[in-house]
Amino acid sequence: MTPGSVFVYGHTGTGKSLVIQSLLKYHKLPHIFINCVECSSLRFLVEEILNNLPLQCSSQSETSSRAQDMLDYEESFIRCEDLTDFVRNLKGLVSDSELKRETLYIVLDKAERLRSTNSVLLPALLRLQEL
C-alpha cells in the first residue's frame, strides 16, 4: 500500500529533488519527473505526463530510421485539453501496459507554481488515485 501523495518541502538548494529522483531510480520504481516551471498551463502539464509515461513499447523495431522515429513520435503524441481527458487517457494507457499492477509515481518538481494556474489542478492530482 502506497500513500496517495507525499509533499516534500525545505529550503531552496537542499537536494530534495535529487533525493527523490535517486530513491525512485535506486528502487527501480516507475516514475515520471515533471518540472512545473516548464509547464505553464494545465494542457502542457497533462500532455507532458501522458507523453512521458514509462511504458514498454515492444512494437517499435530496433532498426527503424530516425525519420521513421520522428513520424512515429508525432503520430503517438497524445493531446489532452482538460482533466477529464487526462484521467481517461492515463487510465487507458496504464491499464494497457505492464504498469497495471504497479504504482506509478508522478513527481511534480516546483509544484508551488501550479497554484496560480488552475484552482482545481492540485486537488485533482492529489486525488488521482480515486479518480
TrEMBL record:
GO MF annotation list: DNA replication origin binding
InterPro entries cross-referenced by the UniProt entry: AAA_16, ORC5, P-loop_NTPase
Residue span(s) of domain Orc1-like AAA ATPase: 2-130
Tree of life domain: Eukaryota
Any single biological process term in GO: DNA replication initiation
Gene Ontology CC, one term: nuclear origin of replication recognition complex
Pfam families in UniProt: AAA_16
Record-stated family: Belongs to the ORC5 family.
Name of the molecule in the record: Origin recognition complex subunit 5
Protein source organism: Elysia marginata
